[in-house]
Amino acid sequence: MKFKTSQLIVTTLLLCPALVLAHGVSNADQEILNNGGLFSYIYVGAKHMLTGYDHLLFLTGVIFYLNGFKDIITFISIFTIGHCITLIGATYLGVKADEHLIDAVIALSVFYKGFENLGGFKKLQIKSPNLLFMVFIFGLIHGFGLSTRLQSFDVGTNQFLAKIISFNIGVELGQIIALIPIVIIITQWKKRKSFEAFYKSANTYLIIAGIGLFIYQLYNYFGTP
């Protein structure tokens, strides 16, 4: 099977995030936060979202399902509201959970979207849940995952809320930067005859990636002393 240049670009765009391991907390990021003020939180937040393969895979699945720019804006906005609530709220209140368990649930959201996109609920003769509601719920869960990452840093007490908000702003900027090429490529590809085959293969990958990430996170959870 021969791949056109555009197919290779999109496949790389979808596959590469799952290979990026910079999604966690690093000493280098901590140094940046220690020395850079509020803008450093914006930078680290954007970086975290750009390397947040699980978040981006889920959003890619959502975009596949939608038709029209208005729908994309609506659903991405609902997702954003959801993760802002838990990112800011959980961090400010100090609500924590094991990051591997949260990431395991986020991995299931990736699986869920691929499964739904391929008509999994219809094949089981089950009515699929309201997508807008599910995107909001998953937004809350994804935001909690972002909060666990932020709470892994030594944020201190000075300008505590401002630092949380700055990190959140960075996350939103990173999300916008990451989604622009994804939205453009998917919407343009819908005009091509090869879109159906690409749609099936990409969403099959979401299912496989979701299962793989779920197993990986549970392995890390039970394997951590």
Q: Give the topology string: H per helix, E per strand.
A: HHHHHHHHHH
The proportion of strand residues reads: under 5%
Radius of gyration: 18 Å
| Overall average pLDDT | 85
How far apart the termini lie comes to 46 Å
Structural class: mainly alpha
Q: Into which percent range does the helicity of residues fall? A: over 70%
Low-confidence stretches: 1-22
Task: Categorize the overall geometry.
Answer: globular
Give the number of DSSP strands: 0
Largest pleated sheet: none
H/I helix tally:
10
Supply the key terms:
10 helices; 225 residues; globular; mainly alpha; disordered N terminus
Summarize the structure.
The protein has 225 residues and is mainly α.
What does this structure look like?
It is a single chain. The chain has 225 residues and is mainly α. The chain has a domain of 150 residues. Helix content is 78%, strand content 0%. Helix 2 packs antiparallel against helix 3 and helix 4 runs parallel beside helix 6. The longest helix has 30 residues. It is globular and about 55 Å long. The termini are far apart. The N terminus is likely disordered.
